[in-house]
User: Fold this.
Amino acid sequence: MVSPLTVQRLFTQLALSVILALLPKGVSAPVRPATVVAKPHLVAVTVAKPPYQVGMATWYGKWFQGKETTSGEPFNIYAMTAAHKHLPFGTWVRVTNLLNLRTIDVRINDRGPVPAGRIIDLSYGAARALHFYEDGLIPVRIDLIPKPVRKAQLPVRKAQHPVRQAKLVVALKSCKSASKN
Assistant:
């Protein structure tokens, strides 16, 4: 059997041959103008790092609230934490929900998941942030990330002495009242 694409090509060639045969002698077929080909140039391409792991994730919640995790801290269902089989405690990972492409950063503070075929267990809060708390199991991508800088880790400015602070406030108020007059 001959494919429709082959028939179309044959018909096109036949039609072109007939048109060229019917042209009066001395008249040539229209010539296409020359096209200018741009010189190839180098383009900087950034290649994404391969993921640490891709697999299925689950979440755990109420039953474990307040119970001690493997790392020794009490489990909080609303914290952005997770359980992983091999990563060291305190490791930060970026988890991407492959169904809706939402991402969150979580800290590993427990061991798990126990069922085979799952790569990470997320807290209820992390599952809500990824919009999969109603589903029990979703495909995810895990990327290792450096420890994020939190507000508590930023350098804290030393508070001024209360008497100096009060004098500054009084001085500012007197400047404002003087400028009004």
